[in-house]
Amino acid sequence: MDRITIFDTTLRDGEQSPGASMNVEEKLLIGRQLEKLGVDVIEAGFPIASEGDFAGVKLVSDEIRSCQVAGLARANQQDIDRAWDALKGGADPRIHTFIATSPIHMQHKLQMEADAVLEQAVAAVRYACTLTSNVEFSAEDATRSDIDFLVRILTAVVKAGARTINIPDTVGYTVPREYFSMIEEIKNRLPHGGDGVVISVHCHNDLGLATANSIAAIEAGARQVECTINGIGERAGNSSLEELVMALRTRPDNLTYTTNIVTPQIYPASRLVSQVTGIRVQPNKAIVGANAFAHEAGIHQDGVLKNKATYEIMTPESIGLPQNSLVMGKHSGRHAFQEKISDLGYELEPEQIETAFVAFKKLADKKKEIFDEDIDALVADEIIRIPHYYKLNFVSVNSGTEAMPNSTLEIEVEGKVVRGAEFGDGAIDAIFKTIKQLTNTQSRLLTYEVKSITGGADALGEVTVRIKEDGLTVMGQGAHTCVVVASAKAYMNALNKLEYKKRNRPQVTV
User: Fold this and answer.
1) pTM value > 0.90
2) Confidence tier at 377 by pLDDT (50, 70, 90)
3) How far is residue 56's CA from residue 45's CA, in Å, rounded to a whole number?
4) 3-class DSSP state for residue 408?
5) Residues 136 and 266 occupy one common structural domain
6) Tens digit of pLDDT for each residue in 394-448?
7) What is the rounded average pLDDT of the residues 102-119?
8) How many CB atoms lie within 10 A of CB 297?
9) Looking at the domain assignment, is residue 80 inside a domain?
10) Residues 481 and 402 in one domain
11) Residue 69: strand pairing partners
């Protein structure tokens, strides 16, 4: 069976989902989980985009040793030098350089003629090869490019030293049969049938065909697939790693390919990415959605009770879906808690575990039983956070059928304690108005969502908010047994992310 290289771009393309930007520590946390998952290449970011992205790529490259780490660079020396500065401490660093090749991109975005684009691509690859032999070239918007020009530029960059050539469906435009034909023709027209070079694909999901297109490309000769956890990414997202890998694993009779992915690490990776980015996995999402192994219809339930294979083509255990065999409560000790944290896919430092354990004990005094989802929310609230420019100390609300809703808050603004109160249309509106007054922010609330993480009257409530200010959009999350407090924590978390993005605003447009 041919092995498919899994190139994970959750930390680069996935991070470009609105509101999903990550700080340095969050990138490393996910990078370590991707390493446990067994991905071959981690694209850690776009180093020249900002100081924060450079630091994130450098940290991941320096720390991750069992898989390649890549950094994205436009086809110019400045980008490539910046990428190499971030990557050079890695075990097997990869420079991933790109330039657009479609007529619409060359004319309107680059404002360059085709020959000039080819010349710049070759020069970039040739220069990158003076730094490392592990160079990948991408022809941006390849599926809307002229096939003859595409073959020309790919042939030229291979001769210049590129070991991997990527043929991305940048805007999710193609369909499986068309993509198969394109990949097959390119492979056949490359010198020596493409021997010695890896053909890669990077599919977007604008028409909902990203995974299907990736599989079609594999069948046509592609041997690397670029994808993301939960399929996150620009616009409608990317090909989903879990969908691709489990399709290959579940149908070896039809798809005779294999990967190095440790599939029981899929679910922990999915949960971690969701917690870090604030982007929830839709219930009906393939493989990792809450309903993926749930059965509502009586006929389905009857069949599963008799034999799970009647309605389940894979087992929950195969993707690492936890069975809650270790019941957590107020009597659980540090060792059990540490085991549970590890089972859920988190790799924390001793001091972080201690911080989370203290918070766990406080929560356990309020709840009879702690579920995995509670611990996810707890870790997200206590550990997976950007710097606390703003910190919530105290919140109180007065609301009812007769009273005009108002809130009183005490917060810290970069260490300085401030207090204030505001009226609002409701308790939550009053809280948000008070926070905005105390932090002097002009942010606008776009969405507000509240969800009970677990069942029962003592359930932990999770609030997710999406806010926008100065052209930046972020998501914030907060969890607490009191929804009012969870709402305040969510808005504060969003403001911290907003402030972090302001201070690490990209120097160039990605």
Assistant:
1) no
2) confident
3) 7
4) strand
5) yes
6) 999 888 777 788 999 999 998 899 999 999 988 899 999 999 999 999 999 988 9
7) 97
8) 9
9) yes
10) yes
11) 42
Amino acid code (one letter) for 178: E
**Cα–Cα distance, 133 to 119 (Å, whole number):** 20
The residue among 338, 357, 379 that closes a domain is: 379
**Based on the domain organization, do 267 and 308 belong to the same domain?**
no
Residue type, 119: E
Residue 1 has pLDDT above 70, yes or no: yes
Instruction: Give yes or no: residues 262 and 410 share one domain.
Output: no
What is d(CA 450, CA 84) in angstroms, rounded to the nearest whole number?
Answer: 43
- Can you read off the two tokens belonging to residue 179? 């993509």
Task: Confirm if 115 and 122 have CB atoms less than 8 A apart.
Answer: no
| Cα distance between residue 73 and residue 124, in whole Å | 9
Distance CA 351, CA 81 (A): 36
Range(s) of the domain holding residue 307: 296-320
Q: Per-residue pLDDT for 93 more than 50?
A: yes
Q: Do residues 373 and 430 both lie within one domain?
A: no
Using DSSP bridges, classify how beta strands 390-398 and 406-413 pair: parallel, antiparallel or unpaired.
antiparallel
Residue 280 token pair: 């929830």
Establish if 341 belongs to a structural domain.
yes
Instruction: With a cut of 60, say whether residue 132 has pLDDT above it.
Output: yes
Say how far apart CA 267 and CA 319 lie, in whole Å. Answer: 6
Return the percentage of the chain with pLDDT > 90, whole number: 61
What CATH number does the domain containing 50 carry? Answer: 3.20.20.70
CB contact burial 467-490 (16+ within 10 A = b; e otherwise): bbbeebbbbbbbbbeebbbbbbbb
